[in-house]
Hints:
The chain has 2 domains: about 1-135, CATH 3.30.1330.10; about 150-310, Phosphoribosyl-aminoimidazole Synthetase, Chain A, domain 2, CATH 3.90.650.10. The protein is an alpha+beta fold. It has helices spanning about 1-5, 50-70, 90-105, 155-165, 170-180, 185-195, 205-220, 235-240, 245-255, 270-275; strands spanning about 15-20, 30-35, 35-45, 75-85, 110-120, 125-130, 150, 200, 220-225, 260, 285, 295-305, 310.
Amino acid sequence: MLAEALSNLTQSSHPDLLVGFNKADDAGVFRISENQALVQTLDFFTPIVDDPFWFGKIAAANALSDVYAMGGRPVTALSIVCFPEGDMEPKILAQILAGAEETINESGAVLVGGHSVKDKELKYGLSITGLIDPKNLITNAGAKAGDVLYLTKPLGTGIVSTAIKRDACPEELIVRIMQQMATLNKDAAEEAVKIGAHAMTDVTGFGFLGHALEMAKASNVTLEIDASAIPIIPEALEFAKAGYLTGGAKDNQKHVGAALEIVGNTDENILHILFDPQTSGGLLVATPDNAPSDMAVIGRVTKASDESLKIT
């Protein structure tokens, strides 16, 4: 739906607009001087966990991730609040804001304000502004044949979140998943910049394969994915087998469509997880073939072919 809407808009043209919305990148980038540019993004959503404090932490980490995915450093944050006043106690909102502020402080950014409206459904997120030297900018369009691919967080949070809503998750798993989603991509992004990453994107609502497709198309390459190397939350695979699937995964699969070639017999439940929408997921990074040995390599970049994605 969003892609269709954006297709009717004219891409803004300005000599200092370094990244707009034309290649589905994670944030916009606008140069303000020779050595500095603004990185700007916003993201908000309905609660995916019951704990309001952790919801705030996860929402903040999710929004901050877009700046990290460009190689930038977040500096300021603005809260976006839709709150069902009268139906929820104000202390719930206070806990959400406290969780978000804790994660914002962890990132080194500063919460400078925000805006709220009355709404029938609770929603929360943030608009983040970051800084970057344009020479160090990383987009999703720079992947080159010969690069290796790695992913920094295991997949499956969408399926697990569905299981949480159906009261099928033990408390230990709920805590572990909340901690994963609230973990910043800060360290992973800094490592990617250090090793000279050619392309980077964070894995969120379009699922792993949806965001991989954006990178492949923007870079005019093919991404070959080793399904057996993909880090997956073990319980997510069990929940997928039990049918705890998301509607978003079906939409993502339809979006990827014929751009995906499956070579061999990949378990259908693993495919469900590769399409699974993620909240505050990890970074998908394409680097020269000199990535540190402690990184989980999940595939490689090859020259463009008939299919943008291949799973082996």
